[in-house]
Amino acid sequence: MKKILYIMHIPWGWIKQRPHFFAEHLSNHFQIDVLYKTPLKVRRENLKNQNNILPNVKSFFQFPFKKFKLLRNLSFLNKFFIRFSLSQKKIETYDYVWITSLSLYPMISHLITHKTKLIWDCMDDELEFKPIKENKPLLSDFLTTEKHLMERANLIICSSEYLSKKIQLRSSISREISIINNAIELPSTTQKEPISLSERQNLKLNLIEQIPNIFMYVGAISEWFDFESILKLLEANTEVNIVLVGPNDITIPKHKRIFHLGTVKREYIFFYMKYAKALIMPFKVDELIKSVNPVKIYEYIYTGKPILAPYYEEMHKFAEFVHLYNNTEEFIDISAKVLHNKMTTLKNQEESRKFVEENQWKNRCQQILKILPKVT
């Protein structure tokens, strides 16, 4: 069985994301050794997933020296830290080395040889993240690393077509890139819905059961969230209530019809969405968002509920299932029509389920399996 060294910038115990799903599904076909970055601070404890189905999962330490002006010259120490987990001799035992972030390449570049088959899964436009974009020396380092990876990686995978075009334009390097979109993990068919009073209190279901006309958002709430449009919607339509489910790292405006439930265990997400009149993705469409193939849209489609989201190039593939809007006025107009049942779902339940069943993480793994034998 061939071996993959799978190096992640996201903690293994964190809420499952693209790297976790790929590693788990690929482990059915390869020996997967996972190395993940230990977080300096363990925040959002309730997001952590302690299940570990892979036998060889280890952590490594990476300090963000380059983020701090006075510590930048100490960044070489990260190469020293990684030696506690890796050596050039050990790397040579793997058929493939897989990395999930630009930040990981400088730590291992001195350990790989021309024989190493390097795979870079470019899942986000990292250079558009605020801490990188607003730190000029750090941005310069990431630009350099991106160009080096464009030249060195044997296989580059991007989560969206727009992201693929973006990194080629930015690096001035045109090359073959495989597009493998994000996907969905379907809920277990054996999962029992929480029904006892204590479980309902724990899940805050006793609150949302009493809220009418819920327009629900599920996911992280950060700088890209369009609260301006949300507040204008609430002003225009006094019947709508906004329920936000997920962690936040920005301040949520105080409003009597905005309810923030915080983080919910993943196994209950689909149960929560049953209470929604509509599911929304109110994002500000900037360069970061333009590269996003949103997991939540696959999850929203699975529910068979009306969905509202802003239009950008990557959303075109969801146009048959999602009510797309171009500005705040259209968002408010579509919301009113959905509220009064003048607009409903664009596809029936059977068509929606068929779409998501064809877009599961296991399907994406099959795409990878077709590509890997061609890597030279």
From TrEMBL:
A single GO BP: lipopolysaccharide biosynthetic process
| Gene Ontology molecular function: any one | glycosyltransferase activity
Among SUPFAM superfamilies, the record links this protein to: UDP-Glycosyltransferase/glycogen phosphorylase (SSF53756)
Question: Would the keyword Cell wall biogenesis/degradation turn up in this protein's UniProt record?
Answer: no
| Annotated keywords | Transferase
Q: Does the keyword Transferase apply?
A: yes
User: What's the superkingdom here?
Assistant: Bacteria
- Recorded protein name is Glycosyltransferase, group 1 family protein
